[in-house]
């Protein structure tokens, strides 16, 4: 006799808060107490319920996992990148969860990277770091830093075994293979070497887990003796540190959501005082790249979509224009090489690259074959080079690596990610699929782009199921990308769509501005408009349409569930930011103060409070017929805390009990979910199996 798994019921403990004269009751605030055994027991009960409600999908999950595994070349090797006297690369081994980081000396006359089509180790390789060995005995493993010193002798690397994104920094002597006694706990991402590799710069966080200090560590000394180089007291700002490609300067990047400042230290004088390139001015963003006698400045001072200027590297001062502002063409970054500059930009919703010779002239754009694509620079550590490494992909073209000659304009394909035959033995053929760009009309008349991919034989009569993905925050662009796991959906007749909604950056800075602060609801109504357009245009129908998003895209999922529950048959919300108002009201929580320039400050501004309260998913749960909802989170997530989706699901189940709501919590992971590649494939198989079940494709 079996015992049926009970539906989890979270106890209600009404907790009141008052803001701007408004009293709000939160029955599930107690779930934020992570070390309370009752909290852990509740999360485990939700996991058990989710497992019981998806038990019938076990065979399908295995099938989908096998499809991902069989289509992936498990023993594989990246295209090596040259830095100094070595080629650097990583490789994977069949059956192993994590990558192996290696290098091999450059041989006489060798100008092109050595390629290993079968993924076998290169002859003469040196293993720098094996993630599988580091991860032994741990349920989670992540690398934070992986930084080889300019002379190639030392490797600075950092590890996290919990998912909290707090790393222990270590230094390995690559000439001997030994670890130095230097060990620095609780560091963040970002390191930079001094020119002679005698000093390493790194970053730590404050009590709210905000990166706020840059430190200088002298090799061979105790971490307790390290010196603070910069401490940022303004809680809106983060700090970061990096070494320029030229290896001439250490950059200390200081930025809020809308304001930035850069300080520089000569890499040859690591104990020098940081010099300010330009003092911060509210609302002015800029970034710095060193190039010969000048610093290149990419900025938005009087230039909404950014312009490029330069200033003296010896005495930074006035900014001299180099590329004027062009509305509608968003300049995103500039990379400096000895004789060329490469500008990454976006126009008409697509990424692009423009090459500028140092000697002058208009330069040229790099052409790409597909109307929908994503292109950008890959790793290019060499400053003096005549060719650059590019990465290219689309919804139907697997990740591709090219070398591009900056003078002859010749583009050489070095490698395209292999897609092996699936369990049925069928080869992947890009021509069997098609990608489209469609446009929805938002409530205010704005045209919103949608990217779609499907098999060529997919009907356009509304009978095909569809997954629509969205994000729409932080000016992040959801550019077209290829996915092996997605093929399992496409081959079962599913359409995959990406809604390029406001709040993202696909159509420039104004597209972002129209989806933040007191215009945030545009993000949600745009997504609903895209969903309704797909049904109206015959791509799908609302009873076959599943929405998916994560993090801030999870906020989107919760908001549209309240706004237009009839538009979707199901929703997948991963690490969802669904209790945004409570979080943004609490400056003691990680990242809250830095987020005020994105969402507004509801503590200080009653208009912001009322506006956020009107859309935050948790605040607006009501007794209505919701789509089926699968929420996924991680116990150690430091960006979107686990209790947000836990509270959301509890309230949904209490106020709208007629719905199907599932919560799946990774008990040993962070914001990115499981860390090993096989574990990540299993999670994707879990989501895809639930998706296929909900849209009627099993």
Automatic annotation (TrEMBL):
SUPFAM superfamilies, alphabetized: alpha/beta-Hydrolases, Peptidase/esterase 'gauge' domain
Domain annotation Peptidase S9A N-terminal: ranges: 8-416
InterPro entries: AB_hydrolase_fold, Pept_S9A_N, Peptidase_S9_cat, Peptidase_S9A, Serine_Peptidase_S9A
Any GO MF annotation of the entry: serine-type endopeptidase activity
Listed GO biological process terms: proteolysis
Entry keyword Hydrolase: yes
Ranges for domain Peptidase S9 prolyl oligopeptidase catalytic: 481-694
Keywords from the named record: Hydrolase, Protease, Serine protease
Keyword Protease assigned: yes
Similarity section: Belongs to the peptidase S9A family.
Protein name: S9 family peptidase
């Amino acid at each position: 006799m079996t015992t049926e798994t009970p539906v989890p019921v979270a106890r209600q403990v009404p907790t009141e808060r008052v803001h701007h004269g408004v009293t709000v009751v939160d029955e599930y605030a107690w779930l934020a107490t992570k070390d309370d055994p009752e909290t852990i027991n509740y999360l485990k009960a939700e996991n058990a319920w989710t497992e019981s409600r998806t038990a019938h999908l076990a065979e399908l999950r295995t099938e989908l996992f096998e499809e991902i595994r069989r289509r992936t070349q498990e023993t594989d090797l990246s295209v090596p990148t040259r830095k100094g006297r070595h080629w650097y690369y990583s490789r994977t081994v069949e059956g192993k969860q994590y990558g192996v980081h290696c290098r091999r000396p450059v041989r006489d006359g060798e100008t092109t990277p050595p390629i290993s089509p079968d993924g076998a180790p290169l002859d003469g390789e040196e293993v720098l770091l094996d993630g599988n060995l580091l991860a032994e005995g741990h349920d989670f493993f992540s690398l934070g830093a992986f930084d080889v010193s300019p002379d190639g002798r030392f490797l600075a690397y950092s590890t996290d075994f919990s998912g909290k994104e707090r790393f222990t920094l270590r230094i390995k002597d690559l000439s001997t293979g030994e670890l130095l006694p230097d060990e620095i706990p609780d560091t963040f991402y970002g390191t930079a070497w001094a020119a002679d590799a005698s000093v390493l710069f790194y970053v730590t966080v404050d009590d709210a887990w905000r990166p706020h200090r840059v430190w200088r560590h002298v090799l061979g000394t105790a971490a307790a003796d390290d010196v603070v180089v910069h401490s940022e007291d303004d809680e809106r700002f983060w700090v970061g540190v990096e070494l320029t490609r030229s290896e001439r300067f250490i950059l200390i990047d200081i930025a809020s959501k809308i304001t930035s400042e850069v300080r520089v230290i000569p890499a040859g004088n690591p104990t020098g005082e940081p010099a300010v390139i330009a003092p911060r001015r509210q609302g002015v963003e800029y970034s710095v790249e060193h190039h010969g006698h000048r610093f290149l400045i990419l900025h938005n001072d009087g230039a909404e979509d950014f312009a490029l200027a330069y200033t003296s590297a010896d005495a930074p001062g006035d900014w001299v224009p180099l590329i004027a502002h062009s509305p509608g063409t968003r300049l995103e970054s500039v990379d400096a090489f000895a004789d060329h500059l490469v500008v990454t930009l976006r126009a008409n919703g697509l990424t692009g690259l423009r090459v500028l010779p140092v000697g002058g002239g208009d330069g040229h754009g790099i052409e790409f074959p597909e109307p929908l694509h994503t292109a950008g620079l890959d790793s290019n550590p060499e400053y003096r080079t005549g060719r650059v490494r590019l990465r290219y992909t689309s919804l139907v073209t697997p990740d591709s690596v090219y070398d591009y000659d900056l003078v002859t304009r010749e583009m050489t394909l070095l490698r395209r990610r292999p897609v092996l035959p699936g369990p049925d033995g069928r080869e992947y053929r890009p021509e069997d699929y098609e990608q489209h760009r469609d446009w929805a009309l938002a409530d205010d008349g704005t045209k919103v782009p949608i990217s779609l991919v499907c098999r060529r034989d997919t009907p356009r009569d509304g009978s095909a199921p569809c997954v629509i993905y969205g994000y729409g925050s932080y000016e992040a662009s959801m550019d077209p990308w290829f996915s092996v796991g997605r093929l399992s959906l496409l081959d079962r007749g599913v359409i995959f769509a990406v809604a390029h909604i406001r709040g993202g950056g696909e159509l420039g800075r104004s597209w972002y501005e129209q989806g933040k602060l007191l215009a945030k609801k545009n993000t949600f109504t745009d997504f609903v408009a895209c969903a309704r357009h797909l049904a109206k245009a015959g791509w799908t129908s609302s009873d076959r349409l599943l929405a998916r998003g994560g993090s801030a895209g999870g906020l989107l999922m919760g908001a549209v569930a309240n706004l237009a529950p009839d538009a979707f048959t199901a929703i997948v919300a991963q690490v969802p930011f669904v209790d945004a108002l409570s979080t943004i009201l609490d400056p003691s929580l990680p990242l809250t103060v830095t987020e005020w320039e994105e969402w507004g400050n509801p503590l200080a501004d009653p208009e912001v409070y009322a506006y956020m309260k009107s859309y935050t998913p948790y605040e607006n749960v009501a007794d209505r017929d919701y789509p089926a909802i699968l929420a996924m989170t991680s116990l150690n997530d430091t960006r979107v805390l686990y209790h947000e989706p836990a509270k959301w699901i509890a309230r949904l189940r209490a106020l709208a009990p007629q719905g199907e709501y599932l919560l799946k919590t990774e008990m040993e992971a962070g914001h990115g979910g499981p860390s090993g590649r096989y574990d990540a494939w299993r999670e994707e198989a879990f989501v895809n199996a639930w998706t296929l079940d909900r849209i009627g494709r099993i």
